[in-house]
Write the structure tokens for this entry.
Amino acid sequence: MTETLSTPAPLGAPPPRDVLLEVRNLRTSFRVLDGVVPAVDGISFSLRRGQTLGIVGESGSGKSVTALTIMRLIDIPPGVIGEGSEVWFDGQELLSIPLGKMRRIRGNDIAMIFQEPLTSLNPVFTIGDQIAEQVQLHLKVSKKEAWDRAIEAIRLVGIPSPERRVKQYPHEMSGGMRQRVMIAMGISCEPKLLIADEPTTALDVTIQAQILELLKTIQQRTRSALLLITHDLGVVAEMVDNVIVMYTGQIVEQGTVDQVLLQPRAPYTMGLIESIPTVEKRGGRLSVITGVVPSPFNLPPACRFEPRCPYRWDLCRRVEPDLYPAGAAGQLARCHLHTPEGEGRRQPALEAHKVNMTAGRAFGKSR
Ligand code: SF4
């Protein structure tokens, strides 16, 4: 059984010991020629040791900027981290520590796997050199020990003949193999937290399944926590304990994976799930979320999903919704349907979602 997300502690105090990562009121924006773009707008969440958390959203929803801010990989300027933002990792507040200390944490305690391995690997060094360099830098071991660890990491990610493969260059490997190398690099220093940003997006479907299975196995074996960033709800269904859904830089829904995928409470999440094509829907019309994501320079004044929401009413144009308790314990949704004002509209919206879903089960028999 999965646990619910814990409620973030008040600002300033470190979270309880079992919480490995806690993000509080994180706001990241960028100064550009036309003004300031709010990329992440006041998000808070926590991740316990050894657990998996998925962040889901369309392009531009702020999920990757969240990960890069946690890693302190945002250039400042043009990036701006809002006052009062906090990122607690293993008892330390990362946004306020010196950069040198942050560099030691990066790669050592927190590792990140990026979407496109070819742009993350150096083409002029062998993969063994690249993994061993990182191990030597962070773990301060001998060259020989670092090389042995590189071979072991390559073996762990299921690449055959690791002693021979470590001497190869990135261009000598397929896309799937390169992504395995990125995972090997990520786990070579046994991090407490692995952040995977769309780790399978650039791969074909069969390789995707192998890489996800591998990530799961390694995460269970090393007992590291996993923060998985994806636009793919199918990947979330397979991989994570808890999930956060983001829209225009805000969290619009959060809860356990079963709560959010099987009984979504925010109309945006409902729309995302209804629009997944399934075998049962073959031949019929696919559901879509009408309209487009609003420009960050011209966000709707209250609920940001209002122009696209089939359940909107005048309150949604006047008052910005907060995250409210919705449905099962611990589940939260940013929607007025879950306030006393939305009382009479809530049930019809949930019924409409149920009807839309009778056309097909989006997440297979396991859910
Ligand atoms: S607050 Fe209103 S417009 Fe926004 S998601 Fe809820 S029902 Fe739709």
